[in-house]
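Async update (no meeting this week)

Hi team, since we skipped the sync, here's where things stand on the single-chain job. The sequence we agreed to prioritize is pasted below, unchanged from the tracker. I ran it this morning and attached the output directly underneath so nobody has to dig for it. Comments welcome in thread, and please keep replies under the output.
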Amino acid sequence: MNRLTASFWFSLGLAVIVLLCDGCRRRPTALTYIPGHSRSVTNEMAGLMDDGTRIPQPPGTGANDLTRGRTDTGPIPLPDRALRENMNEDREYFKNQTVYFDFDKAAVRASERHKVQAVADALKKRPEASVEVEGHCDERGTEEYNRSLGERRALSIREYLVLLGISSERIFTVSFGEDKPAVPGHNEAAWSKNRRGEFILLTPKP
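Output:
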């Protein structure tokens, strides 16, 4: 083996060693979650609230099934949309129970759970009534993404109502995305009020 060939193989081997060491140094030691994306989805799919605590659930109900729209007996029944057209709306009845969300998240915050509980308690006292949950977003993000996020927020509240004992057939959901801001403005003061879920009391028309 001449000197040129030996030098070539020595240089190649050195380069391989450097690359391997560099790869070891760059290997992440833990998963990096993107706020509002991977972590929130993981929590929701695991049946956890936004603070990481488990959603309270009645006996025989799996949290994973509920977040996917299923129970032990099958899919959660959907309400009949045709009935929605024959109901009166009361937007003031649950006005104080509006649920607010963190940026880019759909999990109900621990500080907001008492509002969903209040809605559930009221519906239990009025078995003839139903409710519509509206999902809303702030202006950041694309229109399509915000529509999807608003839907996830509405469904998150709906699933929590189901966990609290309200029949899913009494809960309608709709997403408006960023189309109906509660507060005009382009700052956090406005955005924090626009990331919300609103409850509309529905009663049968005479």
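Quick observations from my side:
Residues 18-73 have pLDDT under 50 and may be disordered.
The radius of gyration is 25 Å.
Reply here if anything looks off.
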